[in-house]
Amino acid sequence: MVRMVDVARTAGVSTMTVSNVINGRPGVAADTRMRVLAAIDELGYQVNATARSLRTGRTGAIGVVLPELDSPYYAHLSNRLSAAAQSCGRHLLVERTGGTRERELEAISFGHLRRYDGVIVNLVRLDSTDLARLRFESPVVFLGESPVPSRFDHVMMDNVGGSRDATRHLLSTCSRHVVIVGGRHDDTEDMASLRTRGYRQAHGDLGLPVDEGLVVEVRTYAWDEGYRAVMDLHEAGVAFDAVFCVTDALAMGALRALADLDLHVPRDVQVIGFDNGEEDDFLIPRLSSVEPGNDAIAELVLDLLERRIRTAGTGDLRSQATTTVNSRLVLRESTR
Amino acid sequence: MVRMVDVARTAGVSTMTVSNVINGRPGVAADTRMRVLAAIDELGYQVNATARSLRTGRTGAIGVVLPELDSPYYAHLSNRLSAAAQSCGRHLLVERTGGTRERELEAISFGHLRRYDGVIVNLVRLDSTDLARLRFESPVVFLGESPVPSRFDHVMMDNVGGSRDATRHLLSTCSRHVVIVGGRHDDTEDMASLRTRGYRQAHGDLGLPVDEGLVVEVRTYAWDEGYRAVMDLHEAGVAFDAVFCVTDALAMGALRALADLDLHVPRDVQVIGFDNGEEDDFLIPRLSSVEPGNDAIAELVLDLLERRIRTAGTGDLRSQATTTVNSRLVLRESTR
DNA sequence: GACGGTGCTTTCATCGATACAACGTCTCTA
DNA sequence: TAGAGACGTTGTATCGATGAAAGCACCGTC
User: Fold this and answer.
1) CA-CA 20 to 30 A from A260: which of A267, A289, A323, B38?
2) B154 CA to D2 C1', in Å?
3) Could you read off the pLDDT of B276-325 as tens digits, one per residue?
4) Inter-chain CB proximity A135 and B222 less than 8 Å
5) So what's the pLDDT on residue B132?
6) Confidence check: pLDDT of B268 > 90
């Protein structure tokens, strides 16, 4: 284990000088710098990030806490964030909670947050009261649907608006029995409820009643549940001529089920997803979807976090707010 | 900032006793333990992971270094690893290199590896000579195709065998002009070359020549390139009756292109992918694919890493080896 | 020759948790 | 009653880098 003091001895200087060279601080004579660099090279020295971090209180890393890593939405999100962070010279680490309360609590625990200079958190289980008693040192930006206390930065997509647009499109193109896969019967503040709210609003706007039999709840938001939902409806003899799925993965499952039932999309049944994943353009038929402003979200989140990190400790917290990013309906082949 | 010494003062003991309580070490009287726990609770104390890590040399985290996070394969892999690591009580962090040489080098640098107790690395740009001059303190397990010096643990899938099986299936079901999308004309040791090798072997086994015009190179392994490859072939007037894609994403693009060309799968053209992603079962048609043993790989990698971590520093390195996990062809609707 | 300034380098305390060795107290045995 | 051993606790050095402040040359100026 070669330490800074070893480099210093080899170069015939003090550790402070080595530190100055490493951190590019001024006030080191050119030849001294050369000697130090040579010693570093010779000994193969590398800074001990842990020691540095203990001393400075900074880690040089930012964290991203997500429920899952394999759903297309989170996969794209983490990739986007990572690429963006990289381009502004930051190290980004992704971790997964599995969507459990216990691990979400741990992820936002004081001790855990301190591992990073800043953290981006997407919670799905915790609610405002869980967050209320948190004392933060670490800059945090929240992402996602769960409401957070107003003193925190929070970026969310326009779940209600996006769903309303999607549902309205289905209703205005002569579909009369629009299923929502991944909807909720009760109205809380999670993703499913918000998207269902938009679905209800679209019906209300057009003076149409919502048939609760067309609101299908799911256990997960993955492919198989979308498939199962459509199959179950069909077996139960429920008539429908459009399906709005609250995620693209559900929509993929729904498309597959409709194909198995020999129902043509979009002629017999229209389908719209949510997330506008890159793969939507390659499905058969190409999937219409709500684009929640993915790029804008990633950029905004990093921007807010960067600002928090800069102003950390100054007590300057004027900018906290929940920002809602506009969504946009992208129509492809699965709709008329 | 509440420190251990604050807890100690409040509880009227020394920091060592607090440390013993926190780390569940024996030799603390029951009532002392109670007082310490009460003090911890009262002050809201949380261990400073950085300081602990500096002292012990352990971080409690293991790292996963991947080229991308949004390709279905890596997304599933990271999710699997994370879930498995969690179930054996370890904290897992994922980072992305973007597939650049520079960032891959940084990721396996001595200083960077020390951030973790152990690291799982999937490289795509570096070769054996880059790795040759590395001195590791940190336990590392390599994943993926690039060959690594024999002193390291390395888990890879059976790229050649899987591709051979896939190609053989296509050839033995009366396809005579099998395209490989994502193939390579020259033979190196990267993923594309290995999978092309299997493709060539299958031809050789049956005494058939390989038409280099059917070996299509790609820039990335994502959807759009699969689409483009098939479209280009068609526009060039190349005749083919089967497509083997070296990743599932490419295959999705290929399926989409074939649909646009009004070619029926599998009647006119058969398609096989590679990776056996969960979404394959929901594509139209359901995609036949090579299952590379994803679960086995994740389990094996963590197991090897765990062993490395345990034996770290003991100089006990007998177990290094390249392990190849068996692959298996999963036939669905895109093949006859 | 004394003085002040500048440019470079060193000294030393510090960050917070851990582990070794030592210590005092108590109990048990010879 | 001395000696050994177990038990619980404490003092202190340590991990490796950092930063404030002090020290030391060296130069030009009056």
Assistant:
1) A289
2) 64
3) 999 999 999 999 999 999 999 999 999 999 988 888 766 665 666 789 99
4) no
5) 79
6) yes
Give the rounded distance of the alpha carbon of B73 from its chain centre.
8
CA–CA gap between residue B59 and residue B78 (Å, rounded): 20
Average model confidence (pLDDT) across chain B: 92
Polymer length in residues for chain A: 336
- Enter the tokens of residue A245: 């799925």
pLDDT at res. A320: 66
User: Which one of B41, B282, B286 makes the best mutation probe of the A interface by having the most chain A beta carbons within 10 Å?
Assistant: B282
**Which chain A residues are within 8 Å of B117, Cβ to Cβ?**
none
Lowest-pLDDT range, A23-27, A86-90, A97-101? A86-90
| Strand D protein footprint, C-beta under 7 A | A 1, 3-5, 15-16, 19, 22-23, 45, 47-48, 51-52, 54-56; B 12-17, 20, 26-29, 32, 51, 54-55
The amino acid at residue A302 is: L
Q: How far is CA A177 from CA A193, A270, B26, B207, in A?
A: 19, 10, 66, 58
CA gap B100, A313 in Å, rounded: 36
CB pairs under 8 A between A and B: 162
pLDDT computed for residue A152 by the predictor: 87
Percent of chain B with pLDDT over 90: 73
- Give the CA-to-C1' distance from B201 to D27 in angstroms: 79
- Could you read off the pLDDT of B67-96 as tens digits, one per residue? 999 988 999 999 999 999 988 778 899 999
Residue B45 CA distance to nucleotide C26 C1' (Å): 33
pTM of the full structure: 0.89
Residue A56 burial (10 A CB sphere; 0-12, 13-18, 19+): exposed
Q: Specify the 3-state DSSP secondary structure of A291.
A: strand
Q: Which residues contact B161 (CB under 8 A, 6 or more apart)?
A: B198, B326, B327
Q: Is B49 on the interface with A (CB under 8 A)?
A: yes
- Nearest protein residue to the C1' atom of C14, measured from CA: A55
The predicted pLDDT at position B108 comes to 86
**Interface residue B294 vs chain A (CB under 8 A):** no
Distances (CA, A) of A143 to A100, A124, A182, B106, B214: 16, 10, 20, 29, 46
Checking if the pLDDT of A312 tops 90, the result is no
Edge-to-edge order in the sheet of strand A91-96: A322-325, A153-157, A140-143, A118-122, A61-66, A91-96, B91-96, B61-66, B118-122, B140-143, B153-157, B322-325
> Does the CB of A54 have a partner CB in chain B at under 8 Å?
yes
A162 vs A113, higher pLDDT: A162
Interface of A with B in 251-270 (CB under 8 A): 252-253, 255-256, 259
Is the Cβ of B100 closer than 8 Å to some Cβ of chain A? no
Among the partner residues A51, A94, A226, nearest to B93 by beta-carbon distance: A94
Per-residue model confidence as pLDDT tens digits over A194-231 = 999 999 999 999 999 999 999 999 999 999 999 999 99
Q: What's the residue count for chain B? A: 336
Structure tokens at A67: 């429920």
Which pLDDT score, from 0 to 100, does residue B137 have?
64
Helices (H), chain B: 4-11, 15-22, 30-43, 49-56, 72-87, 101-107, 110-113, 128-132, 159-172, 191-205, 223-235, 248-260, 294-311
Query: Which residues, listed in sequence order, are joined to residue A325 by a DSSP beta bridge?
Result: A157
The residues in B 157-216 lying below 8 A from A, measured between CB atoms, are none
Q: What is the amino acid identity at position B308?
A: R
